[in-house]
Every structure is written in C-alpha cells, then in structure tokens.
Amino acid sequence: MALSVNGRSAIITGAGSGINFAFAKLLVDNGCNVLIADLALRPEAKVLVDKHSSGAARAVFQETDVRDWLQLERMFEVAEREFGEIDIVCPGAGVYEPHWSNFWRPPGSAPSQDSPDGGRYALVDINITHPIRVTQLAIAHFLRHKENGRPKHIIHISSIAGQNAAFSAPIYVATKHAINGLVRSLAKLETLDIRVTAVAPGVIKTPLWTDHPEKLKMVDDSVDVWVTPEEVATVMLALVQQQQVSETIGDRSGRGPQFPVSGGTILEVSKTVRAVGQFNDPGPGDRPGNTAADHAAVESESFRLLAAEGWGRSKL
Predict the structure, then answer these.
(1) How many Cβ atoms are within 10 Å of 149's Cβ, its own excluded?
(2) pLDDT for 206-235, tens place per residue?
(3) Under the phi-then-psi rule, with left for phi > 0, alpha for psi from -120 to 50, and beta for the rest, what region is 280?
(4) pLDDT, mean over the chain
(5) Which of 36, 140, 149, 189 is most buried per CB count within 10 Å?
(6) What are the tens digits of pLDDT across the range 141-182?
(7) What's the pTM?
(8) Could you give the CA distance from residue 128 to residue 130 in angstroms, rounded to a whole number?
(9) Residue 194 exposed, middle or buried by CB count within 10 Å (0-12, 13-18, 19+)
(10) What confidence tier does 316 reach under pLDDT thresholds 50, 70, 90?
C-alpha cells in the first residue's frame, strides 16, 4: 500500500491553516496536486495557492463549509474536474470546543451559536459528521476508479484526546474517540486497496491554540513542549508513502524502532511517534509534546458556567 505521492492528487479539508496546511504544502512540494477545502485561506495558504496555480503539482482552493453535505459533494466534483483521479483524502477540518459550540455553553446561551431548537451541535458536525461523510464520498470515488489499480488513502486527524479525558472539552474528546473508532472499523477496506489511518497529535502550535487565549491558559512554556504542524505532516506523508514509520519523526534510515503501517493504524505524534493500540494501550502519558501542564484555569471556568442559574435548560 506504499504510494509515492508524486503525480498523484489529494483533497484536504481545513487546509487553510494548521496541520492540514502543512500537509498540503508537503504534498505539493513532493509533486502532488492538492485541493484545499476550507472557509478561507490564511496568508501562508494563499501564498501556496498563488505560487502553485499552474505547473506539475497544483494547489487549488475551493471555499467549503464542511457542515454542508452538498458543498462536500461539490468539493469532489471540483477536484475531479481539476485533477481527474483522486488518490488521497484527508477530512482534516476540526475545532476545539469553541465558545460558539461548546458543552459548557449550551444551545441558546451566549455566545453559543447552537440553536436550542436546531437539533445539532456545530462542533459535532465539523469534527465527526463531516469526516464520516467525506470518508463515504472518498470511498465512492475510489471504487469508481478501482480498475486503475492504484492504492488509495484516507487520513484522519484524531488527537491524544481520543484516548484522554478533558473536563473542559467533553464534546471535542467525544468526537476524537469517535474518529479512532471509525478508523479502526474501516481497517478491512485495505482488502480493496483503500487504507484508512489517522494521526493523533499532542499539543500542536497551530491557530487552534495560538489564536485562542482561553486555551493558551493551559500551556506553561517553561515545562510544556510544542509539536509543530510540520512534524505532524511528516508523519502523515510517511503513512502514505512508507510501509513502516519510524519512532523518530522524519527518520527513514530504519535504524530505530519502526511501526508497520496497515489499515486502522493510529499514530500518536508528540516529539516522537507511537502506535496507539486498540486494547490495553498505556495511553499518551506525559511524553514531550503530549500534554498541557495547567488545566485548572479552564476547568474552573467550566465550573463557574455550570453554577449559573438555569444552566442547560432551553430558553424557548
């Protein structure tokens, strides 16, 4: 199932910034066309799209709200029109318990944008419903092109939150546990030359953290270690291009510990790489890059919100 990305094509949601942007850039740098599906592009992503509007490996932006299934279908239509056959799909768009869709700020309370009569949480739609639907659309596309015999890859973005608990972010944690279950449940697609895998990053220096002061309260720069988006992207590329992935990020020498890659593989990415077991896994632990030292501030805020009169009741 190893696949050189040179001359191939990919779709990545959420690639306007963060890990997904780093993965998109790495793919383009290695000769792969990429459709970036996001609400908007941060400046660095716009530079990538402008620079690679033509040539052997192109980057194309398609404005996409991943909560809208019709826009997800349109995303595939545009990618097929631009590139033809698609080989790699990453449903990477995700949010971390934002104020506007948050367990401790129930529907109908400020500043939640989840309507008390809407029957939906935007956080769930973005973090798990959209990856499920994109995975279905990817499989449908792959099966239409199976006569070509090219291996296909679907790479999900999980998190150490897929193993850990976090009082301050219970919906986010639930969605990442769900991603792990989805990836493992689709492992047997490898019999159809479709490999489904995931990375489970630790504390990554992306706008998901750096643009949100309420989350930065958890990070103590004197003891915590940031993992870079580029380090995560390197592991994602290895999941596609290699039969084995090294414990040391970027090492392809084969001298250090290696993890075999197959359908259902989930690789935890801190400052090193670890395969996450389905049963009796020891958990992320406190390896460098895996933890934020101070959850007390955000947990106390959750308790403060919970103490408000009428918390959680519909305002209808």
Answers:
(1) 7
(2) 555 555 566 555 655 555 567 889 999 999
(3) left
(4) 89
(5) 36
(6) 999 998 778 899 999 999 999 999 989 899 999 999 999 999
(7) 0.92
(8) 6
(9) buried
(10) very low
SS (H, E, C) the chain: CCCCCCCCEEEEECCCCHHHHHHHHHHHHCCCEEEEEECCCCHHHHHHHHHCCCCCCCEEEEECCCCCHHHHHHHHHHHHHHHCCCCEEEECCCCCCCCCCECCECCCCCCCCCCCCCCCCHHHHHHHHHHHHHHHHHHHHHHHCHHHCCCEEEEEECCHHHCCCCCCCHHHHHHHHHHHHHHHHCHHHHHHCEEEEEEEECCECCHHHHCCHHHHCCCCCCCCCCECHHHHHHHHHHHHHCCEEECCCCCCCCCCCEEECCCCCEEEECCCEEECCCCCCCCCCCCCCCCCCCCHHHHHHHHHHHCCCCCCCCCC
The amino acid at residue 269 is: V
How high is the pLDDT of residue 162? 94
